[in-house]
Write a structure and sequence with these properties.
Number of strands: 0
Structural class: mainly alpha
Number of domains: 1
Number of helices: 6
CATH class: Mainly Alpha
Amino acid sequence: MWEVLIPVVIVVALIVIAGIYLWATYNSLVQLNVRVDEAWSDITVQLKRRADLLPNLIEAVKGYAAHEKAVFENVTRARAETLNSAGPAAAGVAEGHMQQALRSLFAVAEAYPQLQASQNFLQLQQSIVDTEDKIQASRRFYNGGVRELNTKIKVFPNNLFARNLGFHEREFFEVIDGAAISEPPRVQF
C-alpha cells in the first residue's frame, strides 16, 4: 500500500508546487505589466503638460522675434508629433524632434534681452525646465519597469509559458536621435 501511495504523494506535491509557482509568477507578471502601463501613463501626462506650455512659450517669443517663422513652425510640428505619437517607439522619434525644436527656440530667445527679462517668459522657461526633468524621471521609471518585465518574461522557466499567458516584451522609451538629448535645451539665460 505505501509503495503505491508514496509516488502518488510525490506527484501531487510536484503538481501543487508547480501550480503555486505558476500562480505566483502570473501575479508578478500582472503587477509588472500594470506598473509599466502606469509609468507610460505618467510619461504621456508630462508630454501633454509640455505640449500645453508650448503655445504660450511660442507666443512670448513671437512677440519679440516674429520673423523667426521656421523655428515656430518646427516647434508646432514637433508638438503635434508628440501629441499624436502612439507608443514608445513613435514617442522616442517625436522626443528627438521636440528637443531639436526647443533648442532652436531657446537659441532664438537668447538674442532678445527684453524677452529674457520678461517675467512671463521666465515663468514659462522654468515650467519647461521642470517638465523636462519630470519627463526624464518618468522615462527612467518606465524603462526600469520595462526592464523588469522583459527580464521576467525571458528567464527560464517563465519563457516557456509567459507568452502563452498573454505577456509580451515591451518597448523601451528611447529617443531615436541620441544627439538630440545628449545636451538638454539651453534654457538658462
